[in-house]
Automatic annotation (TrEMBL):
Keywords, sorted A to Z: Magnesium
Residue ranges crossing the lipid bilayer per the database entry: none
The keyword Magnesium is assigned to this record: yes
PANTHER family listed in its UniProt record: EXONUCLEASE VAPC9, RIBONUCLEASE VAPC3
Entry protein name: PIN domain-containing protein
Length: 97
């Protein structure tokens, strides 16, 4: 969702596009999870160990706990984690489905 905001600020998408995108996510494509203190503690440890932000670490650790893959366009995050099995670039999503 933050990426949508950035794209809007750069003039790449409209407010209507953001609203429609969020409606699609609300329609079942997005699973909301509670951020627990346990998750924050694990993310903090992960953040320090891998030199990534807590914000990014929360998403990565949650993907690991759910035994799934985190798809992101954040190349810096992908590079920081090397060939980790739990993170992939969004461009790889189509080939995995």
């Amino acid at each position: 969702m933050n990426a949508l905001r950035k794209y809007y600020l750069r003039g790449l998408v409209s407010e209507d596009f953001i609203r429609r995108s969020l409606e699609l996510l609300r329609g079942g494509l997005l699973d909301i999870r509670e951020i627990t203190w346990n998750l924050i503690m694990k993310a903090s440890d992960f953040s320090i160990k891998h030199n990534v932000t807590i914000y990014d670490a929360v998403h990565v650790v949650l993907a690991m706990e759910l035994n799934t893959v985190l798809y992101t366009a954040d190349e810096a995050l992908i590079n920081a984690l090397g060939n980790a099995p739990y993170i992939r670039h969004v461009r790889d999503y189509a080939s995995s489905t």
